[in-house]
């Protein structure tokens, strides 16, 4: 197992270097630069443009800029946003908890509904129940998120007035962030009603962000389950006269869950990269919207630093999933 | 939800000591974006000016709320020397900077603060010129202040003299802009001593109507009324900006009572907003113009007759209906009708495809094909450039001109459209900075702006002389005459097809009282009250 972990960790180094190059290169490939955008319709003279590019250090040869970036990254300095003039790491840390909280809620929501739905569909294969679950999953998978979010807001917040429209907590609550996770901070604040308000604000974004993973998990669970249900040991278990509940719940599910866990892990990785549309609809102050803004403004340090940090998070999640997988399924460990 | 908010606000007031009584009045503004920072001078975005310049700071001169008229602010009065080169400001006494958790002023506002506020932007060797990495003063530069200023002199604690290199009539209007906001030198000194200069941009201190309480990035900005504001404490106790970037969601929040007022509604939503009995939709003609700029240096667009013929081929009313949903008016001049010196005597080129075709024939233009550049972003002066370009394309086709629509990503669009040898006519527009005609005519059409903001690459000596003369004349009546004449030259030469001036809308709860829309497009909450 140790050897497996070491090999897996060793692979991270070239991945990391590759990511720094991609993060650095990506934003520079796009036409236009931050100075032009800052000046807007007014425009900026050639001299002033050159002066500012020099001030930002963008007049240096590209490889030198990259080496500078790499050197700074190694010393933990991701640069300063050209827009807010704040360190990129500080900005990321202020926004990431919001993304983390929403992603975790969405994935829990998706797993809690998706796994049972997949099991039911598999065990009732071909029935109307199976077909309607899989049909719904297909719709969920192809749902246009922006439209879906707005629809829920108009119905639940606008017409029924059951949930708040957007934001993370009611404006009446005001406390300094401790963990940045609103569910935790609202409890720590000790203010009455704060936690309930945070929960209310999470409901719609969780549903919207969880919709696609829910569909993916349900489909994955169904197909994994179907595969396992055809195995000899399941037939044996049935033949032994075990109740269907024990056969499915104990023998089949355990093995069927292995690919499902991988799927969930990968989905977490995707969600942590920031949910641009969901964050925009629900005014959720997360890293997805932050990255998009930074790209539009050609805020080079924010984009390259932000992408790098997001990539690190995804790498970390994938590593954990790999290790977990290795733990559950010993066969993987021996693969070189 | 509607009732919940009011109760919530009262509870918040008690819990956090925002105000002494449970009847604290809180106004919630669903703002459209996040401020870049809280020092307005380094920035150029209206969103930042709303959150910083307008809420927190005051200036020597202010725009009268709801107009572009300049009135005394931190300067009680001023004198301009006969040669127009010296502006002497008499400063208001007894003005207090905000007392906050992070700063307690020991002295009132004085000349040192004025000098500090401008010198940091102007002098490259000033200790605060680059107080955080990569900071620059783009509005100060954009308004040509470095060329203009010769000296800023502290005559005494309450008298400051600005000495100019040349007369500049828009000087007073410039000083009412957000980059000219006055920051506290005493606070800056405190930050410098503590080695935390960057906090000037994060924990601001001003003399304005509201003082900063807290900012949660991309989510909420909180302010409270400045108890010692020199014009008296505001009627509302707390001001909250709930950052909501999507217009449809802003509308839902407003309808649900989660905020009281919102900017920039979707044009398509106006009907339903107006139908809501709890809402009031204010509207005002924006200080803007949307135009199509020909490249006047390239044949056949170097011929005014060709430009004029194309202008006559464009059906502006159809554009107003389709693109602006009727919320605008056709433009005939490069400046909007609400601006002084607007020449209403000018006749617009009539929409007449037949005549346009004949004029093109007369000019010897046959089988013309051209490009129309459509902006990729929505702006008040042009909510949907793509649609506008398609309509113009169809209009041009009707007179035998083949137009191809091209578009680029915004940064590239801004950059490429400046090129002197650019191929094609560009859709763009402008929203005024300071209500002065110079801010349109010189900035967008002056010879100095060729290769920059002058997208028509149009340098007309007659026009340029008139505008330059007006710039150095302080007499308003005389300036008006010069600008009126300049507009006649503009119309005759037709470097642009002037398309439209749009109307700007501001939906708000009927409980909001005293809100005035600024023609400059800024959102300010001084003088606003909420009915319980």
Provide an overview of this structure.
Chain B: Residues 1-24 form the signal peptide. Chain B: This is Dipeptide transport system substrate-binding protein. Chain B: It holds the Pfam family SBP_bac_5. Chain B: It is found in: Periplasm. Chain B: Its main location: periplasm. The complex is a heterodimer of chains A (336) and B (532). With 336 residues, chain A is mostly helical. Chain A has 2 domains: 34-75, no CATH class; 88-333, MetI-like fold, CATH 1.10.3720.10. In chain A, 75% of the residues lie in helices and 0% in strands. Chain A has 16 helices and no strands. The longest helix of chain A has 36 residues, at 88-123. The radius of gyration of chain A is 24 Å and the shape is globular. The radius of gyration of chain B is 24 Å and the shape is globular. Residues 1-21 of chain B have low confidence and may be disordered. Chain B folds into 2 domains: 26-243 and 511-530, Alpha-Beta Complex (Dipeptide-binding Protein, domain 1), CATH 3.90.76.10; 288-502, Dipeptide-binding Protein, domain 3 (Roll), CATH 3.10.105.10. Chain B has 532 residues and is of the alpha+beta class. In chain B, strands 11, 12, 13, 14, 15, 16 and 17 form a 7-stranded mixed sheet that branches. In chain B, strand 4 and strand 5 (86-91) form a beta hairpin. At the A-B interface, helix 3, helix 4, helix 6, helix 8 and helix 14 of A face helix 1, helix 4, helix 8, helix 14 and strand 16 of B.
Concise structural overview:
The complex is a heterodimer of chains A (336) and B (532). Chain A has two domains: 34-75, no CATH class; 88-333, Orthogonal Bundle (MetI-like fold), CATH 1.10.3720.10.
């Amino acid at each position: 197992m140790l050897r497996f972990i070491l090999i897996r960790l060793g692979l991270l180094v070239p991945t990391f270097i590759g990511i720094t190059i991609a993060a650095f290169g990506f934003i520079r490939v796009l036409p236009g630069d931050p100075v032009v955008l800052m000046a807007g319709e007014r425009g900026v003279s050639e001299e002033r443009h050159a002066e500012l590019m020099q001030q930002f250090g963008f007049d240096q040869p590209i490889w030198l800029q990259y080496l500078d970036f790499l050197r700074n990254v190694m010393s933990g300095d991701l640069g300063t946003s050209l827009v807010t003039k704040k360190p990129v790491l500080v900005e990321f840390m202020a926004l990431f908890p919001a993304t983390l909280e929403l992603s975790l809620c969405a994935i829990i929501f998706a797993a809690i509904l998706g796994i049972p739905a997949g099991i039911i569909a598999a065990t009732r294969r071909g029935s109307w129940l199976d077909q309607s679950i899989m049909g719904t999953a297909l719709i969920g998978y192809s749902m246009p998120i922006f439209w879906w979010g707005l629809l829920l807001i108009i119905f639940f917040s606008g017409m029924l007035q059951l949930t708040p429209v957007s934001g993370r907590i009611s404006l009446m609550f005001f406390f300094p962030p401790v963990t940045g996770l609103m569910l935790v901070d609202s409890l720590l604040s000790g203010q009455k009603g704060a936690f309930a308000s945070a929960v209310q604000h999470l409901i719609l974004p969780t549903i919207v962000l969880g919709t696609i993973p829910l569909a993916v998990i349900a489909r994955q669970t169904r197909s994994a389950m179907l595969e396992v249900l055809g195995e000899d040991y399941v037939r044996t278990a049935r033949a032994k006269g075990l109740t269907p509940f024990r056969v499915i719940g104990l023998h089949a599910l355990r093995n069927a869950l292995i690919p499902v866990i991988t799927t969930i892990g990968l989905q977490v990785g995707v969600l942590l990269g920031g949910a641009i549309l969901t964050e925009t609809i629900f005014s959720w102050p997360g890293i997805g919207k932050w990255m998009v803004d930074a790209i539009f403004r050609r805020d080079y340090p924010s984009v390259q630093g932000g992408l790098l940090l997001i990539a690190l998070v995804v790498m970390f999640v994938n590593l954990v999933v790999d290790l977990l997988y290795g733990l559950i399924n010993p066969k993987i460990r021996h693969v070189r | 939800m509607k009732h919940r908010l009011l109760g919530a606000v009262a509870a918040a007031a008690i819990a956090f000591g925002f105000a002494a009584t449970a009847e604290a009045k809180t106004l919630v503004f669903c703002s459209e974006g996040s401020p870049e920072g809280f020092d307005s001078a380094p920035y150029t975005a209206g969103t930042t000016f709303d959150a910083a310049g307008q809420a927190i700071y005051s200036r020597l001169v202010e725009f009268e709320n709801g107009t572009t008229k300049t009135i005394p602010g931190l300067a009680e009065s001023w004198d301009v020397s006969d040669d127009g080169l010296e502006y002497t400001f008499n400063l208001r006494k007894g003005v207090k900077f905000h007392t906050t958790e992070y700063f307690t002023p020991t002295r009132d506002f004085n000349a040192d603060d004025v000098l500090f506020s401008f010198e940091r932007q102007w002098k490259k060797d000033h200790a605060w010129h680059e107080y955080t990495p990569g900071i620059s003063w783009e509005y100060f530069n954009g308004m040509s202040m470095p060329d203009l200023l010769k000296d800023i002199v502290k005559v005494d604690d309450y008298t400051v003299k600005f000495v100019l290199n040349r007369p500049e009539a828009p000087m007073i209007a410039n000083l009412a802009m957000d980059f000219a906001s006055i920051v506290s030198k005493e606070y800056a000194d405190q930050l410098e001593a503590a080695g935390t200069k960057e906090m000037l941009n994060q924990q601001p201190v001003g003399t304005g109507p509201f003082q900063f309480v807290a900012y949660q990035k991309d989510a909420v900005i909180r302010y409270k009324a400045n108890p010692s504001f020199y014009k008296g404490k505001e009627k509302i106790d707390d001001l909250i900006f709930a950052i909501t970037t999507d217009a449809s969601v802003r509308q839902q929040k407003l309808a649900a009572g989660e905020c009281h007022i919102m900017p920039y509604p979707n044009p398509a939503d106006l009907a339903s907003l107006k139908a809501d009995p709890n809402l009031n939709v204010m509207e005002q003609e924006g200080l803007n113009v949307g135009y199509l700029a020909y490249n006047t240096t390239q044949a056949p667009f170097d011929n005014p007759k060709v430009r004029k013929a194309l202008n006559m081929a464009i059906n502006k009313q159809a554009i107003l209906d389709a693109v602006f949903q009727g919320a605008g008016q056709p433009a005939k001049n490069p400046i909007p009708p609400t601006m002084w010196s607007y020449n209403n005597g000018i006749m617009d080129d009539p929409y007449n495809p037949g005549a346009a075709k004949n004029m093109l024939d007369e000019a010897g233009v046959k089988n013309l094909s051209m490009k129309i550049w459509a902006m990729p972003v929505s702006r008040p002066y042009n909510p949907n450039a793509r649609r506008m370009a398609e309509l113009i394309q169809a209009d041009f086709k009707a007179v035998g001109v083949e137009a191809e629509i091209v578009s680029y990503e915004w940064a590239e669009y801004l950059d490429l459209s400046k090129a002197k040898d650019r191929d094609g006519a560009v859709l763009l527009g402008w929203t005024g900075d300071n209500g002065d005609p110079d801010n349109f005519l010189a900035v967008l059409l002056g010879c100095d702006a060729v290769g920059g903001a002058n997208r028509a690459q149009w340098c007309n000596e007659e026009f340029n002389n008139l505008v330059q003369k007006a710039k150095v004349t302080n007499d308003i009546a005389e300036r008006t005459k010069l600008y009126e004449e300049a507009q006649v030259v503009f119309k005759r030469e037709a470097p642009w097809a002037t398309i439209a001036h749009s109307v700007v809308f501001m939906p708000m709860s009927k409980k909001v009282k005293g809100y005035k829309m600024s023609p400059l497009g800024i959102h300010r909450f001084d003088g606003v009250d909420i009915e319980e």
